[in-house]
Amino acid sequence: MTAPDHAWFMRRALEVAKRAWGTTHPNPMVGALIVEDGEVVAEGATAPVCGPHAEINALGALGRRPKKGATLYVTLEPCSTVGRTGACTDAIINAGLARVVVGATDPNPAHAGAAFGILRAMDIDVVPGVLADECADLNLIFNRWITTGRPLFAAKSGVTLDGKVATRTGDSRWITGEPARADGHRWRRYFPAIAVGAGTVRADNPRLTARLGGTEWCPLRFVFDGLLRTVTDQALPHVYTDEFRERTVVVTTPHGGLGYVRKLNSLGVKTWVLPSASPRVSLAAFRRRCAEEGIGGVFFEGGAQLLSELLQTRELDYLFTYHAPVLLADDKGKSVLRGLRTETLAHAIRLTRVRHEVHGDDALMRGFVQYPEKMFVDEAAFNRPAAGG
Fold first, then answer.
1. Average pLDDT value for the chain
2. What is the rounded CA–CA span in Å between residue 249 and residue 264?
3. Scanning 28, 39, 90, 239, which has its CA 20 to 30 A from the CA of 197?
4. Are the C-beta atoms of residues 62 and 93 closer than 8 Å to each other?
C-alpha cells in the first residue's frame, strides 16, 4: 500500500475521531479503521467519559476476527499500559492484525513510541507519523495536560482586518458572518469550560452555550467578577438564572463581599473566591484551581480587558482569531488586545504551529502563543479597572 493510500485512510480516521468531538475529556479523541483488501470494514471512535478506546470500538464493530493481512489505522499511538481499560496493544496482538498505521505519537514522554516496539516485537508492521500534525491537532487540550499537568487557556476573538472588535460607540454585532460564528460554537463544544469577564456579561447577557445542529450543550461557565458587580444589577444575567445555572462558576476575590457570594450560592451558582490583594482575579491562581479540579481547558471569549490580562500575565496559551473582511479605519475603534509596550518586533508576541481555515467570508488563524524573552507591560493600562473587577 502506498503512502498516498495511507493518507487517504488516515483522513477518514480523522473524520471518525471527530464524531466524539468534545466528549472524551480527559481522554484524547481518537479514530480507528480496520481495512481489509483495500476496503474499510469497521470504524470506531473513543467513547465518551473514559469509555472504550477507538481501537477496541473498531474491533467490536467488526464483530469477528480480522482477515489475514488486515490493517488498523489509528490517529494516535495505541496505549500500551493498563488503565481504566486494557492495553490496546494487547487487543491488536490478540486480533491478529498484520499492520498498524499511526498518526500522532503518544505525547506522554513516559509512553511515547512504546507501542511501536511492542507491536514490532510481535512481527506486526508499524507505520508511524502519517498526517501526524493533523492528528496531533485533534487533541490540543489532552496534549498540553499530559505533558505539563496544566490546563490549556485559549482565547477567541472576531475582529476586523484592522484588529477592532467594536466601533467607537461599542457596536459589534456582527463583525463576523454566520459560518465563523458557527465554528466558534463548535470550539465551545470542544472545550470543557468557557470564560468571560463581568463587563461582557453585563453588556451582552450571553448564554455561553454551544448551539449546534439544533441542540444546546452547556460547558462549565466561568464569569470573572472580582467585585461581584454582576450580582448588584436588578435583573440577574441568564447564566445565573437559566436551566444551566448549576454549570456557572463566578470567579471572584475577597473584595466582592460574602453577602453576594451567599446570594449566588442560594441560586445554585458556584463561586470560587481566589486569594488576591486587589479586586483583580489572579489568573495564575485560577489556573492552579482548574488543575486541582481536573479542568483541562478553558475557552476565553472576552471581553477585551480579560483577554488582554491573559496576554499581559503570560497566561494565554492558544489564540483563535476570526478575521472579517471589514475595515473601521478609526483609531478610536475598540481593540481586542492592548496593554503592552512593543517597541520592536523582537518584543512582539507570535503564534506558532499556525493553522488557517476559511469560514464563509471570514478567515480563522489559530496557533500557540509564543512570548518573547522580554515583554513590556504598559503599567498604566494594566492598572485600569479590570473587566472582571
1. 91
2. 9
3. 28
4. no
Catalytic residue among 55, 77, 301, 309: 55
Of 361, 366, 339, 312, the C-alpha closest to 155 is 366
3-state SS of the chain: helix, strand, coil percent to 5? 35, 25, 40
Provide the β-strand partners of residue 270: 249
Catalytic, 55? Answer yes
Question: Which grid coordinates are listed for 8?
Answer: 487517504
Is the distance from CB of 190 to CB of 22 less than 8 angstroms? Answer: yes
Quick one: which of 132, 191, 127 has its CA closest to 353? 132
Number of residues in the chain: 389
Cell numbers for 226, please give them: 472580582
DSSP string covering 203-249, please? Answer: HH-----EEETTEEE--EEEEE-TT-GGGTSSS--HHHHSTTGGGEE
Tell me the sheet residues that pair with 157.
321
pLDDT tens digits, 219-278: 999 999 999 999 987 789 999 999 999 999 999 999 988 899 999 999 999 999 999 999
Residues sharing a CB contact under 8 Å with residue 155, sequence separation 6 or more, in sequence order: 299, 300, 301, 307, 310, 316, 318, 319, 320
CB-neighbour burial class of residue 121 (10 A; exposed 0-12, middle 13-18, buried 19+): exposed
pLDDT at 1: 64
Residues with Cβ within 8 Å of 211's Cβ and at least 6 positions away in sequence, in order, are 185, 217
Distance CA 183, CA 181 (A): 5
DSSP 8-state symbol, 46:
P
Neighbours of 106 (CB within 10 A): 21
Cell of 39: 476496503
Look up residue 180 and give its DSSP letter: H
Could you count the other beta carbons within 10 Å of the beta carbon of residue 198? Answer: 28
The residues that bridge with 193 in the sheet, in sequence order, are 220, 298
* Position 17, amino acid: A
Nearest one of 4, 20, 14 to 134, comparing CA atoms: 14
Q: Report the predicted TM-score, pTM, of the whole model to 2 decimal places.
A: 0.91
